[in-house]
Amino acid sequence: MNIIFRHVFIANIFSILLTIVLMSITFVLFPLDRWSLLWQAKMGNVSFFVWIGGIAIGIGTIVGLSTGWYWKQRIDQIHRNLDEIIKGQPISSDEVGYKEIESIAAQIAKIQEKIRKQTEYSQRLVTERANEREKSLQEIVVQERNRLARELHDSVSQQLFASSMMMSAINESNSPIDEKMKKQLQMVEKMIHQSQLEMRALLLHLRPVQLKGKSLQEGIRELLAELTQKVPMKTICKIEDFSVDKGIEDQLFRILQESLSNTLRHAKATKLQILLIKRDESVILRVVDDGVGFHLDEVKTGSYGLQNMRERAYEIGGTFKIVSLPNQGTQMEVKVPILQKEENRDD
User: Fold this and answer.
1) What's the half-sphere exposure (Cβ side, CA atoms, 13 Å) at 197?
2) pTM for this structure?
């Protein structure tokens, strides 16, 4: 039952009962000689009792609407605050102003403060781990990964490219070929093309290895420059300059790598949009493609790529959202709150 309707209903019952009690007391103190006069008495051709009942119901309705609307506003405010906490946004600074829900508002503030401290601790821990990993990473590991990426590019990738060109030439030739054989050759060409995309995705994972000595923005620009050199895909990017902790940069960069890899391997996209901005004390990373898309409920729950990106976002206290529909592309968005460090805060 709606809260306003419930208050109106209760107020009407109370008003009618109060009217009956007051009339009973009045008639007891001032008894009438003829009770039939009450039934006969009229005001403007309307019975006296009808007027009394109408006034009682009117007063009850007005009181019920007022109290119902009052409490609905208070409950809605609590819902808005809880929704802001769920979305990782700071609670609006509007004062409660009502003693009845001050205790609830205080509890909500404590919950948000606890979540804020946990998020700050998680981000600090990730940053410390990223710094330790960067310091302890041996140069030979970097060199080996780069060597592997170069060899794959210079050998396997080049061979796949040559095979693709040869298959295209065969399929486009006018030589008499059996129809069944022609379909098989076209299938082989598609398989080679898919293998090329898989190889390019693998190369993106191998190189660049890390953000050592670079900002997140510099790493993204280099990654997109390498992507456009290898894949005929139109890229539109909006990257704002700002600084965040090393741990957040590292995780966002890994999420972007995973997203681009999924796009190359599965999306069959021709256009890619990258957005990296800072709004309302939050960093937003958004990747949108115009590929084939998919049904989210049909994706395996254990899908490594999506699960990996989601876990990385949660690890830095962020939210992960993906929207996709068949033949309408895919949009991935990560939103991470940037907390103000309080150096001298008393616990």
Assistant:
1) 18
2) 0.55
